[in-house]
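FAQ

Q: What does a record look like?
A: Structure on top, sequence underneath. For example:
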């Protein structure tokens, strides 16, 4: 991986260094800009643009953004999980989080580093055909902007500003592609509970009809 120097905040503004650290290692966070290597090669190799509605851009120069967009996508694949994606160096650095982002600092959740995705994927929602890589339904669960406090091959510290999730999080590598994600601050409302992902629909309930006065009279005569 080649990544920028750690970002810091000064007077509320985010600053990012221009130099890069280290080389690409298995499971490292971020893989763009490494010696001319195509950072989306693994992504393209797993997808046939003729069979999946997912964006599969051609090989060309990567777009340049502000490195501040994030998205969380709910992915009903072989098993339900959430994909956290952070814009970095022209790609979306991605982790699959089986239990979703932790709501409080008391719990750490597994986050499996996956291949970098194109920036266009931040808006992707749709049905990936069965039999294709990642087959299942993909929807955007939340999106917004983020600030980088630290970014290297073993630790990523960020502040998320989304519609459903906001707060300071750190991802730290535990081995190979396995990372953990930890919430560093309490939720804004400590008594709030995250909404359940699947709600039971409210169905009509059949109730016994009230008897009319003539019906009651007939019943009493029997």
């Amino acid at each position: 991986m080649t990544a920028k120097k750690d970002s810091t905040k000064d007077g509320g503004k985010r600053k990012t260094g221009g130099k890069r650290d280290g080389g690409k290692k298995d499971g490292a966070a971020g893989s763009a800009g490494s010696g001319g290597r195509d950072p989306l090669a693994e992504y393209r190799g797993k997808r046939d643009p003729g069979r999946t509605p997912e964006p599969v851009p051609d090989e060309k120069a990567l777009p340049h953004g502000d490195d501040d967009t994030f998205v969380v996508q709910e992915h009903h694949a072989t098993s339900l999980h959430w994909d956290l994606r952070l814009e970095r160096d022209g790609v979306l650095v991605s982790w699959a989080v089986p239990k979703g982002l932790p709501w409080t600092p008391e719990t750490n959740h597994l986050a499996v580093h996956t291949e970098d995705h194109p920036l266009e994927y931040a808006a992707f929602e749709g049905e990936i055909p069965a039999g294709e890589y990642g087959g299942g339904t993909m929807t955007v669960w939340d999106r917004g902007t983020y600030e980088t406090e630290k970014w290297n091959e073993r630790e990523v510290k960020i502040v998320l500003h989304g519609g459903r999730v906001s707060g300071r999080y750190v991802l730290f590598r535990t081995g190979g592609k396995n990372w953990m994600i930890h919430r560093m601050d309490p939720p804004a409302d400590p008594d709030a509970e995250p909404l359940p992902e699947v709600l039971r629909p409210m169905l009509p309930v059949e109730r016994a009809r009230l008897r009319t006065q003539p019906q009651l009279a007939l019943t009493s005569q029997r």
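Q: Is there anything notable about this one?
A: The two ends are 87 Å apart (CA to CA).
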